[in-house]
Amino acid sequence: MNTDRIHAANIPAHIGIIMDGNGRWAKKRGQLRTQGHLEGLSRAKAIVQTASDMGIRYLTLYAFSTENWKRAAEEVSFIMGLVKQYLRSEFAFFRKNHIRIRHAGDMETLPPDIAGEIRGVCAETAAFPGLQVVLALNYGGRNELVRAVKRIVQEHTAAEHITEGCIGARLDNPDVPDPDLIIRTAGEFRTSNFLLWEAAYAEYYISDKLWPDWSAEDLAEAIRAYGNRDRRFGGVQQ
Ligand code: IPE
Ligand code: IPE
Ligand code: MG
Predict the structure, then answer these.
(1) Confidence (pTM)
(2) Are 179 and 199 in contact (CB under 8 A)?
(3) Is 1 a domain residue?
(4) Which structural domain range is residue 91 located in?
(5) 175 an active-site residue?
(6) Residue 70: which CATH number?
(7) Separation of 209 CA from ligand 3 center, angstroms?
(8) Could you say which of 4, 10, 53, 68 is catalytic?
(9) Is residue 158 a part of any domain in this protein?
């Protein structure tokens, strides 16, 4: 992989990836959608390794949305099973690379065994100082905001204390900085409910490639493209 042209200063601290196209990848090969998810998991592992090697600080992976429950029960349980197996079997890899696993999404409506597995791996890797991988599972940006609002109401917060900071502090991972770069694979130009609040000033990068076809070089290319963007945050170019 050729990453040497990427200037360290232009490396995003936080990358979010909407890993899309597993089903289409499988269909193209006359295979079941589940095969696409299996291949997608193997890509996710490879990209976590690459991001860790590159020194990325945070990587949020959109693995299952609050809307993905609409899919066939077999597909949903296959994805949940894959996640469980991955978290269980990769601890040695996380430890070796100092990778911390975190979660974004609604824990209350996840199957209890999956929620337990996530809580376990988050606790076991909590002190690892390397790349932080935020697993967005049963995640929806609107759902995250609804849960934040519920907390604010439960705390009897007065209207004058409701600020952007107050809302931001009640999101799932308030200490994680907003994403700098959001990548979506498989060519769709939509957010599909990913990090609605946090992505206010993220740079978007759409790749036509299906997620199971993604490689380390594709990530390097996305970061290179990001490095050439002019982020103004509403101000004027310096
Ligand atoms: C992304 O791939 C993975 C999940 C949403 C879980 P898809 O399963 O959405 O693949 P396509 O979009 O049908 O090709
Ligand atoms: C977004 O992909 C969710 C994940 C990648 C987990 P979808 O395939 O669910 O999005 P839509 O339905 O095409 O918007
Ligand atoms: Mg899709």
Answers:
(1) 0.96
(2) yes
(3) no
(4) 10-227
(5) no
(6) 3.40.1180.10
(7) 12
(8) 68
(9) yes
